[in-house]
Automatic annotation (TrEMBL):
UniProt pathway annotation: Cofactor biosynthesis; adenosylcobalamin biosynthesis
Record flagged with keyword Nucleotide-binding: no
Example GO molecular function: threonine-phosphate decarboxylase activity
Organism in which the protein naturally occurs: Methylohalomonas lacus
Family: Belongs to the CobD/CbiB family.
Lineage: Bacteria, Pseudomonadati, Pseudomonadota, Gammaproteobacteria, Methylohalomonadales
Annotated TM spans: 44-65, 72-90, 143-165, 278-297
Entry protein name: Cobalamin biosynthesis protein CobD
Keywords from the named record: Cell membrane, Cobalamin biosynthesis, Ligase, Membrane, Transmembrane, Transmembrane helix
Length: 300
């Protein structure tokens, strides 16, 4: 049952305090990654070596620290608290919702830009609501559920490995000329580590949104999406909320047409709050299932 208590404490700390505002360890890690990139940059082999050097030593260290009795349990709570970003996701999404409610499109576009990498300068309300809702659903997995999954499966070492891989994917996982080869290992590792959590997150969205009858639609939409992990999560969330996601976006002035996800009408500002509630309800479901599983294992 200690693992369930650790999860609760870490989640409550994040909800209460949010992410560390200064000296966030992931910012330091990103700086080290950029330094190493400048010295190892090259093809896939060099990129793979960089991933190993950056992830394996800290993951091994925290796996060892996590095994040190009560001190290890406290270290695990601290690591998970730093790894998850539920409060940050809420704050950024609510800022967009408030700007839209106040009919302040310029502020809404700026706040949307903090959540997504696409061009926001010409977005209308529907596009901003859709972009924010997609980010809420996808980051519900990346910044919350996947971290919890790897903490339960592999302890502090597992959550450290996942979060560092996720950070490297954000830095290097681009399909452009610079990172197509060097970032290949980081992108593939992130895909592998998110494979099971993304589908469990999608299942949670379906259960909490009473959307299991959309399973085959969700599966088909996920396979058509560039990333099947993100496709499962957003398709399930879109069907749970009965909102259609996907569609055309612009990156650096270049238009891209994406397949549709979900079902129903295009999102509105109010759907941002509905998306946050879906993530919250799914979190409650996850904690209940993990707690029940831990109780069964300790009383078997």
């Amino acid at each position: 049952m200690l693992i369930t208590l650790a999860l609760l404490v870490a989640v409550l700390l994040d909800r209460w305090l949010g992410e560390p505002r200064r000296w966030h360890p992931l910012n330091g890690f990103a700086a080290v990654a950029r330094w190493l990139e400048g010295r190892l940059y090259g093809g896939r082999l060099r990129g793979g070596l960089a991933v190993v050097l950056l992830i394996v030593p800290p993951a091994v260290l925290f796996a060892w620290l996590g095994a040190q009795g009560m001190a290890g349990w406290l270290i695990g709570i601290t690591v998970l608290y730093i790894a998850i970003g539920w409060r940050s996701l809420i704050d950024h999404a609510v800022a967009v919702r408030r700007a839209l409610d106040a009919a302040d499109p310029e502020t809404a576009r700026r706040c949307t830009g903090y959540l997504v990498g696409r061009d926001t300068g010409a977005m209308d309300e529907t596009q901003m609501a859709g972009a924010t809702l997609e980010s809420v659903l996808e980051n519900g997995n990346d910044a919350l559920f996947a971290a919890i999954f790897w903490f339960v499966v592999a302890g502090p070492g597992g959550v450290v490995a996942y979060r560092l891989a996720n950070t490297l994917d954000a830095l290097w996982g681009y399909r452009n000329d610079r990172y197509r080869d060097f970032g290949w290992a980081a992108a593939r590792l992130d895909d592998v580590l998110n494979f099971i959590p993304a589908r469990l997150t999608a299942l949670g969205y379906m259960l909490c949104g009473r959307a299991l009858h959309h399973f085959y639609r969700i599966a088909q939409q996920a396979q058509a999406w560039p990333s099947s992990n993100a496709g499962w999560v957003m398709a399930a969330g879109g069907c749970a909320l009965q909102r259609q996601l996907g569609g055309s976006v612009s990156y650096q002035g270049v238009a891209h047409e994406r397949p549709p996800l979900g079902t129903g009408a295009r999102p509105e500002a109010a759907d941002i709050g509905r998306g946050l509630r879906l993530v919250r309800n799914t979190l409650i479901l996850w904690l209940a299932v993990i707690g029940a599983g831990a109780w069964v294992l300790t009383h078997a």
